[in-house]
Specification:
The complex is a heterodimer of chains A (about 375) and B (about 260).
Chain A (H helix, E strand, L loop, with lengths): L2 H4 L11 H29 L27 H31 L6 H25 L2 H25 L1 H9 L5 H25 L23 H10 L11 H32 L4 H25 L4 H35 L7 H4 L3 H7 L1
Chain B lengths: L1 H13 L7 H20 L5 E11 L12 H4 L23 E5 L12 E5 L4 E2 L2 E5 L4 E5 L5 E5 L7 E5 L6 E3 L5 E7 L7 E7 L4 E3 L5 E8 L1 E9 H4 L6 E7 L4 E2 L2 E4 L4
Classes of the chains: A mainly alpha (about 375), B alpha+beta (about 260).
Chain lengths: ~375, ~260
Amino acid sequence: MDHSSAVRFKKMTIFPDARRSALATYAWLTVLATLGLIALGGLVTSHGAGMAVPDWPTTYGYNMFLFPISQWVGGIFYEHTHRLYASGIGLLTVALAVWIQIRARGEVPGLARLGWIAVLLVVVQGVLGGLRVSLMKDQIGVLHASLAQAFLVLLVLIAVFLSPGWKRFLQEGPTIPRSTARWVWLATGMIFLQLVLGAAMRHQHAGLAIPDFPLAYGKIWPPTDEAFLQGINSLRTDTRDFHPITAGQVHLHMTHRLFGILTTAVVILAGIHLRRSFGSRSFPGRLGTFWMVLILVQVGLGASTVWTNKAADVATLHVVVGAACLGVAAWSSALSRVAADRSRAIGAARSRPVHALNGNQETIISAA
Amino acid sequence: MNDLAASCVTLIVRWPVIGWSKNFIMKRSFKAVVGALLVVGMGSAQAADILGKVSLKGTPPAEKDLPLDPACGKLWPNQKPKTRFYAVGADNGLADVFVYLKQAPAQAPSTKPAMLDQKGCEYSPYILGLQAGQKLLIRNSDPVLHNVHATPKLNKEFNLAQMAGGKDIERSFDQSEVMVRFKCDVHPWMFAYVGVVSHPYFAVTDKDGNFKIEGVPAGKYSLVSFHRKTHVTDDKAAVQEIEVKDASVTANFTVEVAAP
């Protein structure tokens, strides 16, 4: 069997029980729905509407589920739909935990616990959102945005662990060099940190601290002396009347850019390692390719966010693709971890690609 | 001086009637008495006005149309409103500049409330002066709801819903702060800025950049002219040292727009 024919996606047969497949599908749908919630959260901050509904858990004194649609205007629309949608995600998560508890407990060790941790996280996340409104603290907003990413990672991992191919991957999957796993984990950590940096920028409510790209105020590193900042602040006439730009915000923005470049480089290296170690046509290899494409799209969206003066839809897409990058990173991390651990356990050669060891295993990889 | 002292005493006596707490009365009374004593210390019972004009030098950036939503757009059938960063009038007079004395002694807050209205999905006025402790009424004259969100750094932040036709919101700020930003998050183009000082000696320039601070007790002061967009923060504001005697004092300022 040649390499290409060996690496085909096959139907997952490890968990033939239809209910288990349905559970995995449901988990992935919950992941997608959560990505939608992150998008709505991004729209809230992009439109500066986080405080448009001043009360919580009520909405302008109404039970939030009974707030008249006619009043969903301006910034209220974004904030209120975010709250309603988040309630839906809470229900989906509870249902997921219950379903796992009933049907999949014991199939994958610790999975039921992960399901309940997800419930706990979604509750904490809801409370944080409420506290951000009632305590009026931007710092809570940053925490809220960061926890959203962590919640997404957890859901991705649950969905991966529920996927029919996972158990077989655990039992019969390939081995990879530990260095591959290290690159993937490093890239995952860097993406998360970059998302936190981005959240910190968004919650400054200062608009774009640097309005040009790839240069910054026409320079490689912009000046941040008082006279310069006063000059640029006095000439900003955005209708949203952002807070004055500070030196700290300029440095934060530059850090986000530079760390973004570093993160992109590390993700590409991690993607190359995935392709080499698992095989370019294996599922993890393809995931690595997708990851690289996604991170390049993310770079483009970052640049576009600047070029469009932080247009709400572009800035929000930047948030969503960032979250998707993290989701793929978590998925790749799980696969790499298992394969690297097996490698260590059986003392396999670190640098030999998996398809050189056993071509049949690649069909198993694709099932994960 | 006697008039001032008498006013202080009158205010102290009247405060309980209008419902102020005993603690607050004591604090304010103390400040009022200290203020009166400081005026005495200045060695004069005279008072005069401070007059002047703030002019803009340079070409400001163009103002932008406000991105009104349909409900607010209906309130402006003819002319669409614009941002109000640089309101330049006759002879380059600059409106909406907050002018105040920096070292004037603290005084009892005025009993007359100040008004901040929401009309045509804009705050009006855009720039407002207020004494610490003075009552601020916030009104919604629009047929749409707003949220009144004050984001001070020194005073207490608040964010309150105000439905169309809802009753006025009453608030005050305890500490001096230039400026307290007001916004409406439902309509993200709505802003107002309130300069809060501990005495009544402040003014906001009119459409032609003129201002007048009335009845300033004789003494030496720092007169501050703060334009929110040009000076950005109050520590960058323009300051003139002036001395008030028995005649009006004139103090003019020129604010320069930064080069693009």
